[in-house]
Specification:
The protein is α/β, with parallel strands linked by helices and 272 residues long. The protein has 2 domains: 214 residues, Rossmann fold (3-Layer(aba) Sandwich); 31 residues. Helices cover 44% and strands 9% of the residues. The protein contains 10 helices and 5 strands. Strands 2-1-3-4-5 form a 5-stranded parallel beta sheet, sandwiched between helices. Strand 4, helix 6 and strand 5 form a beta-alpha-beta unit. It starts with 11 loop residues before the first strand and ends with a helix.
């Protein structure tokens, strides 16, 4: 997938979304998915990175979402200028859709609102845009129990799949990256908090790694530090690897190297 936005390294990362983007239900702050992404970016690029976490728990995308009345306000459409564009980011990650799906928002209305936010942000910042799909949920339990949370249970698993596809389509149409969080989580209930709708530490780390992987394979600038170190340290097959190995493996590899050296010498001799 070709992306015309910045190729990294990145200096200003904005996170927009809901309670999971905020980091809710991750016991260790370093396991919040936004922090997992940031830590990996910092590890692989020389430039410093500033993170602006603007995830808002219980948020929805716009006032026309059926869950707007009971949501935390303002909605993303009402705040993306202040919480996104005005921060002048070069990387924007948007994970806003699970609550809209849960409260029964029209898929077309949701796509239109998301596209507005994406295109405005691209036009005013030139940032690389990353759209995260909906998260795995368990219907009928905790925050997804219709008896106690009627506003947030107007969905089913088919609806979740449709929403996920809708986010992918918006990303494809508007030259953004898509992260299939639903696929990454694999329907595993044990990546969720007991409330059945938020990610636990494991779920956060899985999503964070997937977001970083998606960015890294499309933003070549992230590899600059690694490529520089390979050259400076003269990293080769002969001086790398071997963590947690033992004497036997080292001896077997040394014997193989000797054999390869003899074979190369014989080939060179035959050419003379």
């Amino acid at each position: 997938m070709m992306v015309s936005s910045p190729q990294g390294p990145f200096r200003r990362m904005v996170v927009l979304g809901d309670s999971i983007s905020y980091g809710m239900c991750a016991h260790e702050p370093s396991n919040e998915w936004n922090q997992v992404v940031a830590a990996l970016l910092r590890k692989f690029q020389d430039e410093s990175l500033t993170v602006f976490n603007r995830g808002l728990p219980a948020s929805v995308i716009s006032p026309r979402c059926p869950g707007y009345l009971q949501s935390a306000k303002p909605s993303l459409l009402e705040r993306y200028q202040k919480h996104g564009i005005e921060l002048q980011p070069d990387l924007v990650i948007i994970a806003e859709g699970t609550n809209d799906m849960r409260s029964g928002m029209s898929v077309q209305d949701y796509m239109d609102d998301l596209a507005t936010i994406v295109t405005d942000t691209q036009a005013q910042t030139g940032a690389l845009m990353v759209l995260v799909g909906v998260y795995h949920q368990i219907y009928g339990k905790g925050g997804n129990d219709p008896a106690t949370h009627p506003t947030w249970t107007k969905w089913n698993y088919d609806t979740a799949a449709i929403y996920n596809l809708a986010i992918r389509l918006v990303a494809q149409k508007h030259n953004a990256l898509f992260v299939d969080a639903l696929g990454v989580l694999g329907g595993a209930d044990w990546v969720l908090h007991p409330d059945a709708c938020h990610l636990n530490d494991l779920g956060h780390v899985l999503v964070g790694n997937a977001i970083f992987q998606t960015i890294a394979v499309h933003a070549s600038g992230i590899a600059q530090k690694t490529m520089r170190i390979v050259e400076e340290k003269e990293v080769t097959t002969l001086n790398s690897g071997g963590s947690d190995t033992d004497v036997e493996i080292r001896q077997l590899w040394a014997a193989a190297l000797e054999r390869y050296a003899r074979q190369d010498a014989e080939k060179n001799s035959a050419k003379m």
